[in-house]
Fold this protein.
Amino acid sequence: MKKWRADFRLWHWINAFIILGVLGTVFLRKTFLSVKTNSEVVMDKLSGIDINVTASQAKMVVRAIRAPMWEWHIWLGYALAALVVWRIALFFTQSGKQKYTTLKEQTMHHKLVTVLYVLFYAALTFMAVSGLMLEFHKALGISHSLTEWLEGKHALIYNLILYFVPIHILGVIMAEQKEEKGIISDMINGGKA
């Protein structure tokens, strides 16, 4: 019997890919595809060839350039919502709940890690639900003030997840080097129960 079932491992790696994609789209939006920075570049380069555009026209061009990237964010968000539902279903499998059924026997370190995972899953659930609410706010009849509040909390949780991802990767690498040798290969091949 494997420590991690194939469906749980598949969920884990798809989830990792989707989360990196979602984070990447926001990261690009805030950095390389920034409207403010790139609209200034558009105005500068066009004026260099004697074409003058206003700041709002330049912003319109930049928004059009980055619109497909934002569509990716939305599609990846749908995938994340499906993955949250899948993870809830996986909780009822042996490998999906094993960390939680042996909580009393775990070391303080492992209890803390388990609590962090629960908080991470709660954050993913919030991101999926709030993202869907933001996407369908008009159809759901959500007020403008609630939509703004959701946007703020969605961004806040994004930042927390942005910190969690490298901490998770670093923690796994450290665990692989110390007390949990084979943790990475176990999440690939299943490991031994």
Summary: The mean pLDDT is 88. The CA atoms of residues 20 and 91 lie 23 Å apart. The first helix runs from residue 6 to 30. The two ends are 6 Å apart (CA to CA).
